Amino acid sequence: MPRGLIVRRIPAPGEAADPSGPKADDYLGRLVKYVPSEVVAMYLALTALVPTPPSDGDLKELWVYFAIAVVATPVYLWVTIRRGNQPVHAIQLVFSTIAFVIWAIAMGGPFQSLEGLEAHPRFVSALLIVSTFSFPLFPLKEETAG
């Protein structure tokens, strides 16, 4: 399965639709492609290097790992999608980055040190669930041939 989103292609005026062309991603296809699993794996591996419970110095290290992963999400996706000779859709980069941030908040890490979040774990979990299942509902812009 290609890493980039596949959107519906509208034939140019006078051009017949190509039934053998790639089918646009459905809800499940978009759901899978919005989850930056490679970056999640990297982030988990990096944060596993930090002792538990983290000291103040370790919290700074966790924040650095989080920042690296946030920057890595759109960069990694852009490079991977381009290597597959697919068009890069900004919505995938944006949704994947937001999805990573929400997931990281839900996992704790450096966010454990923030007052408001530790007091509302159910809110953070609900945000994770709602965002994960609602992002693929947003319609994708169709590509026009030509």
Please tell me about this protein's structure.
- By secondary structure, the protein is mostly helical.
- It has one domain.
- The chain is 58% helix and 3% strand.
- It is built from six helices and two strands.
- The protein starts with 8 loop residues before the first strand and ends with a strand.
Short description:
The protein has 6 helices and 2 strands, in the order E-H-H-H-H-H-H-E. It has helices spanning 27-34, 37-47, 56-83, 90-107, 115-119, 121-134, and strands spanning 9-10, 143-144. Helix 2 packs antiparallel against helix 3, helix 3 (56-83) packs antiparallel against helix 4 and helix 4 runs antiparallel to helix 6.
Q: Please tell me the total number of domains.
A: 1
Estimated helix fraction: 55-70%
The main sheet comes to: 2 strands, parallel
Give, in spatial order, the strands making up the sheet with the most strands.
1-2
Tell me, rounded to a whole number, the average pLDDT.
Answer: 83
Q: What are the secondary-structure elements, in order, as H or E? A: EHHHHHHE
Number of helices: 6
Low-confidence sequence ranges = none
Rg, nearest Å: 19 Å
What structural category arises from helix and sheet content? mainly alpha
Salient structural properties:
146 residues; mainly alpha; two-stranded parallel sheet; 6 helices; 58% helix; elongated
SSE layout and pairings?
Layout: E1 9-10, H1 27-34, H2 37-47, H3 56-83, H4 90-107, H5 115-119, H6 121-134, E2 143-144
Parallel strand pairs: 1-2
